[in-house]
Write a structure and sequence with these properties.
The chain is an alpha+beta fold and 214 residues long. It has one domain: Sandwich (Jelly Rolls). Helices cover 29% and strands 27% of the residues. Helix 1 crosses helix 3 and helix 2 packs across helix 3. The longest helix is centred in the middle third of the chain and has 21 residues. The radius of gyration is 17 Å and the shape is globular. The termini are far apart. Bound molecules: N-oxalylglycine (OGA) and manganese (II) ion. The site of manganese (II) ion (MN) has 4 residues, from loops.
């Protein structure tokens, strides 16, 4: 028997290959969402979460105009995190099987946007850098309504002026995007907004060998 999750992953990866992005609702079960929210709220309570950075390598800085969010790296410590990393691993394998991107590792962080928080239009990787290849965003917000705002705007490419879609950050929804190609923006919301952002990367040294011109 084929499980729903396998169908969701296959459809998402197909869409990612066709369009450069994919959106799948109800991809993470309410039970797992509850565990992930608990873990994120623990970190909020204990202060184990910091202002999100913008930029690359040594140049990473806090830029309150570009981004207003707290972030905290995900480990393999709690049941929720373990499930999430296992889920990401299934996606990684499916992408490698179907799109042959040679994804090598995954890193992810919890995000907590205060009321009015945002992350302005950006791409997650510079062209030719070959580091972050596919981005994943998973949303944790229960009972979210359109009037709360906080959508994820997605543009088809650098040149696009209008977003191709606005995705509500509803619990269980998972978005995949090609990290170099797809500009996106987390819009400000009237409520606190919680998410996980993750990046599938290639092994930087082998990437250099595969395509030395980059
Ligand atoms: C990011 C990001 C989107 C969101 O952290 O790089 O694009 O909806 N997040 O929070
Ligand atoms: Mn991003």
């Amino acid at each position: 028997m084929i499980h729903k999750i396998e169908i969701d992953i296959k459809n998402s990866v197909d869409d990612l290959g066709k369009n450069g992005y994919s959106i799948c609702e109800n991809m993470i079960s309410p039970e797992i969402i509850t565990l992930l929210i608990q873990e994120l709220e623990n970190r909020e309570r204990t202060g184990d979460i910091k202002a999100g950075l913008v930029g690359r390598g040594e140049a990473k800085t806090i830029d309150g105009k570009q981004r207003d969010v707290l972030s905290s790296w995900i480990g393999n410590d709690t049941a929720g995190e373990k499930y999430f990393l296992d889920f990401a691993e299934q996606i990684r394998l499916s992408i490698n099987r179907n799109l042959m991107l040679g994804l090598f590792e995954f890193e992810s962080q919890f995000l907590h946007y205060p009321i009015g928080g945002f992350y302005k239009r950006h791409v997650d990787a510079l062209k030719g850098n070959r580091n972050r290849i596919v981005s994943m965003v998973a949303y944790l917000n229960q009972n979210w309504s359109d009037a709360d705002g906080g959508s994820l705007a997605i543009w088809e490419n650098d040149q696009s002026l209008r977003p191709v879609i606005e995705v509500m950050p509803t619990a269980g929804t998972v978005v995949l995007m090609l990290s170099e190609d797809i500009p996106h923006e987390a819009r400000s919301a009237l409520r606190e907004r919680r998410a996980i952002a993750g990046w599938f990367r290639v092994n930087p040294s082998s990437a250099g060998q595969i395509n030395p011109s980059h």
